[in-house]
TrEMBL record:
<dbReference type="InterPro" id="IPR006624">
    <property type="entry name" value="Beta-propeller_rpt_TECPR"/>
</dbReference>
<comment type="similarity">
    <text>Belongs to the tectonin family.</text>
</comment>
<protein>
    <recommendedName>
        <fullName>Fish-egg lectin-like</fullName>
    </recommendedName>
</protein>
<keyword id="KW-0430">Lectin</keyword>
<dbReference type="InterPro" id="IPR051513">
    <property type="entry name" value="Tectonin_beta-prop"/>
</dbReference>
<dbReference type="GO" id="GO:0030246">
    <property type="term" value="F:carbohydrate binding"/>
</dbReference>
<dbReference type="Pfam" id="PF19193">
    <property type="entry name" value="Tectonin"/>
</dbReference>
Length: 225
């Protein structure tokens, strides 16, 4: 699942996409997707064949171009994703993301080398490698070249950056952490602060001071301020 700009979207175990309204989830189009994301550039997803989709006019439109195993639309406008064939991180500019309405192919720009999971915020992108190492980079003007990927720590299997720049991560043992102690000398913070949970967590996302988590037993929980 993913949260962004007040919207919450997700897929169930049968790969059916949904959106949250009030206390209920409602069907979001008819595509079969393994992953969805929402943000300033719209709502995007990818299926079991790693084809990329955008939600347009009430349904999902497939986009030709790279096949991606994970996408993130949480940055200030760009969409980033992990290329399925090489695990390289690719970036779709805000202009191209907003302009896509279901026809033609998308032109992606190379953003970084091998990552397993990626998430972007207002000024930085964070990524996790296949050996669970965490890296961060400042991104110049949308899909511009990263300023250099800085090693942060290890032991995390996924990461999520909110539209306000907050960073949350999920450890390999299912524990939830928030990145803290940001300063002018350390734009990526200096420590991980544990957020206690009552059971192991499988997935997380953060938006507008609400932390959403999916437990290993498939329960959906939300931590409110």
């Amino acid at each position: 699942m993913d949260a962004g700009l007040g919207h919450v979207v997700g897929v169930d175990r049968y790969k059916r996409p949904y959106f949250l309204s009030g206390l209920s989830f409602y069907s979001l189009g008819s595509a079969s997707l393994k992953h969805v994301t929402t943000g300033p550039s719209g709502t995007w997803g990818c299926d079991s064949y790693n084809k990329v989709y955008k939600f347009v006019a009430g349904n999902w439109k497939v986009a030709s171009g790279y096949t991606l195993q994970q996408v993130d639309a949480g940055g200030p406008g760009q969409v980033v994703g992990i290329q399925s064939s090489s695990n390289r991180t690719q970036c779709l500019s805000e202009a191209r993301a907003l302009a896509f309405y279901g026809t033609g192919s998308l032109t992606w720009s190379y953003l970084s080398n091998v990552l397993m999971y990626v998430s972007c915020g207002p000024e930085t992108c964070w990524g996790v490698t296949n050996d669970y190492k965490v890296y961060v980079a400042k991104i110049r003007d949308n899909c511009g070249r990263a300023t250099g990927w800085q090693y942060v720590s290890r032991g995390m299997k996924m990461i999520d950056v909110g539209t306000d720049g907050s960073v949350y991560a999920l450890s390999t043992s299912g524990l939830v952490y928030q990145r803290t102690a940001f300063s002018s000398r350390s734009y990526y913070g200096t420590r991980w602060t544990n957020i206690p949970m009552c059971m192991p967590i499988k997935h997380l996302t953060y938006d507008l001071k609400n932390l959403w988590v999916v437990t290993e037993s498939r329960l959906l929980l939300v931590c409110t301020p």
